[in-house]
Amino acid sequence: MPKPRVAVIIGAGLAGCLAARATRGHVDKVIIVERDKLPSGPYFRKGVPQSRQAHILLEGGQRAIQELVPGAIRAMLQAGAVQLGMPDGFRWFGTAGWLSSEPTGLNAISCTRPLIDWAVQQEVFTDPGVQVFDDTECVGLIMRNNSVAGVRAMRRGSRSAVEFHADFVVDASGSSSRVSEWIGAVTPWALPPKHTSRIAFSYATRFYTRTPAGGNQGIVVQATPESPRFGIMVPVEENRWAVCLGGLEAPPTTVDGFLSYAGTLRSLAIDESISLADPLSSVRGNRPKMGRLLRFDQNRAGVNGLIVLGDALCSTNPIYSLGMSMAAMQARALAYVLVRYGRTADWTARAQKAVLETSKPGWKLASDGDASYLDARGTARLRLQLKQHYFHKLMARSIDDPHLSKVVFEVLSLTSPAHHLFRPRVVVSALKSR
Predict the structure, then answer these.
(1) What gap in Å lies between CA 340 and CA 332, rounded to an integer?
(2) Contact of 270 with 231, CB cutoff 8 Å
(3) Which domain holds residue 241?
(4) Could you give phi then psi for residue 97, rounded to 5 degrees?
(5) Alpha-carbon distance values, 288 to 193, 228, 273, 318, 384 (Å)
(6) Which of 368, 392, 411 is the last residue before a domain boundary?
(7) d(C-alpha 126, C-alpha 72), whole Å
(8) Helix, coil or strand: residue 380
C-alpha cells in the first residue's frame, strides 16, 4: 500500500483554512495544527488580537474565497455580514471631500473577524480528509534530506513533543510566526531577508447598536498629512456598528476620550452618528509597530517543502483592510501552482514565488501609505511627496469622474494592479484642472 500523502498546515485561522482547501485535492490528508483552543462558534480568541477591531473583506479577497470555499461567502451573509458597495455603500470623506456615490460594481463585506473565520472553518473542517489539532503549538521543523518533512509540536499541558510528519508544510500562523527562527535553526543559509516598514497609525474600536432606521451605509473619514486622524464606521452582524478611530497619536481607550477624539476628525459625520447610538462594548486599542515581508525571492537557496503565507509572510498596517484579502489571494495562488505543476521536484519554490508575487501589491500600497505620514529623507521624501500630490489630484478628480473612481477602487479592492493608476488616460484625467 502506498504511503499516504500528507500536508501540515500551521494555523487554523483564515489563511490556514484556505491553505488547507488549496492543498486538499493534492494530498490524502491535511493536518491543521493550531496553538489556540478553538471556540465553539464565531467568538473572539486570544490568538487573533486584531479580531476585536473593524474588519472589511475586499472584492479581491471575496473572489479568491469564492473559488476556494464556495459556500463561505454565502454563510457570512446569512449570518448577518453586510455587503457594501465600494464606494457607494459608504459616505466617504476622501482627502479632497465627499466622494461620488456612483456604483463601481465592487463590494466589500463587513462583519467581525470571528464570523469570517467561522464561516470558512465550517466548510473546511467538515472534510473527512482534514484533521485539526487545536491547543497545540508548533515548536520547530522536522528535516529530512535538506527538505522540510513535518513539524514538532507541544500539546498544551504536555511535557513531551509530538511529531507530525508530512510531504510539505504550510506556515499560516500569523504575524507571531516563528518561521524565521525555525529556518535559521535548521538551514541558516536559506533564511530569507526580512523587509520591514514602520506603521504610522494606532487605532481603537468600539461597538454600538444599529437600528433599522439608521440603515447600513458605512462612513469613512480619511486622514490627510495636515489632519492625520481617520474614522471608519461599518455595519456588522447582530445589528451593530463597529466604529474605528485612529491617527499618528493613539486614540484614547477611555469612553470619554474616544468620544472626544471622534469630534476632532475632518468631518463630524461619525461623531454625530455615534452620539445617537447606544454603546455595546468597551474601547479596544491596537498599536501595531512594524510591517514585515519575508523576501524568499532574494535567497536562491530556498527551503524545500515549506510554504509561508498570510501574515507569517507579509503583515501590513491593518487600517488598509488588506490582510485577509491578501491571505485569500495567496492561498488561491498556491492552488493554481498545484493545479498547473503538480508536486514536481521544485513545486514548493514555485508556490512560494507565486504567493510572494501576490503579496507585493498590497505590501506596496500599505508601506507607501504609511511612509507618506512618516519622516522620510532625501530622494525618498521627494518621491513620496510627488506621489502624495498625484494621489490627492486623483482623489479630487474622482469626486465627479466615475471612470477614475472605478479605477481607484479597483486598485484599493485588489482587483487591479496599482500600475493602472498610472495609465496615460488616468494620469491625464487626474491632472486636469477642476
Answers:
(1) 12
(2) yes
(3) 200-286
(4) 125, -170
(5) 21, 16, 27, 8, 22
(6) 368
(7) 13
(8) helix
Q: Are residues 163 and 208 part of one domain?
A: no
Q: Kindly provide the residue ranges of all beta strands, DSSP E only, lying in 34-88, ordered along the sequence.
A: 56-57, 82-85
Give the predicted TM-score (pTM) of the model: 0.94
Average pLDDT of every residue of the chain: 91
Nearest to 244 by CA among 262, 226, 260: 262
Number of domains in the chain: 3
Q: Is the pLDDT of residue 378 over 60?
A: no
Given pLDDT bands bounded at 50, 70 and 90, which one contains residue 376? Answer: low
In whole angstroms, what is the distance from residue 222 CA to residue 201 CA?
A: 12
**Structure letter (DSSP) for residue 319:** G
Those residues with Cβ within 8 angstroms of residue 41's Cβ, 6 or more apart along the chain or in another chain: 118
CA pair distance 27, 69, nearest whole angstrom: 17
Question: Positive or negative CA dihedral for 19, 61, 108, 295?
Answer: positive
| 257 and 350 fall within a common domain | no
Cell of 90: 459608504
Condensed to tens digits (0 to 9), the pLDDT of residues 305-344 reads: 999 999 999 999 998 999 999 999 999 999 999 999 888 8
Concatenated DSSP letters of 161-175: EEEEE-SEEEE---T
Q: Is the pLDDT of residue 2 over 70?
A: no
67 located within any domain: no
Adjacent-strand bridge partners of 154 = 137, 161
Q: In the β-sheet with 161-165, what is the strand arrangement from edge to edge?
A: 136-144, 147-155, 161-165
Closest CA to 232 of 362, 365, 90: 90
β-pair partners for 204: 245, 285
| pLDDT recorded at residue 159 | 83
Last residue of a domain, one of 261, 286, 311: 286
The proportion of the chain whose per-residue pLDDT surpasses 70, expressed as a percent, equals 97
Bridging pattern class, strands 6-10 and 168-171: parallel
337-364 per-position pLDDT tens digit: 999 988 887 899 999 999 999 999 999 9
Mean pLDDT of 290-308: 88
Tell me how far apart the alpha carbons of residues 41 and 114 are, in angstroms, rounded to a whole number: 8
Assign 174 a pLDDT band (cuts: 50, 70, 90). Answer: very high
Spatial separation of the C-alpha atoms in residues 217 and 82, rounded to whole Å: 10
Nearby residues of 35 by Cβ (< 8 Å), 6 or more positions away? 11, 47, 135, 136, 137, 138, 173
Cα distance between residue 416 and residue 411, in whole Å:
5
C-alpha cell at 429: 484625467
